[in-house]
Amino acid sequence: MKKLKLEVFTQETRAYDGEVDIVLAPAAEGQIGILPGHASLLTKLTAGELYIFDGPRVEILAVGGGLLDVHNNEVSVLADSAVRADEIDIYKVEEAKKKAEEALKQGLSEREYTLAAADLSRAVLELKVARRRHFTRSVMDE
Q1: Higher model confidence: residue 91 or residue 142?
Q2: Which of 96, 103, 121, 129 has the largest count of CB atoms under 10 Å?
């Protein structure tokens, strides 16, 4: 069976590089599925969960928006942020979430409020991805 070459980049790092069967991405128009042979495409990504399927293995990344490009069975994701589910420290993210929630209760400038809201959104997404990873693993292990 044909595979897709998937690369996920942020400004700081390459978050994923490998051959996969299917990619599900949070596009601006809704969730989009990419399989081998997909037509060329350039689309905007929203913050959400990027699912990577390779045989029975499923990997999830929390992406903070960006661009997705598909061409000749190559998928490139240029993400504002990307973290693999297995790299998420739940305790650290819970703490960041609490800190952002507390900050939002304070009298903040518009800029500070926007930054705290972004921190809260990122923490909520990462917690969702981390929890989904544990659920996906337990279901697949049965």
Answers
A1: 91
A2: 129
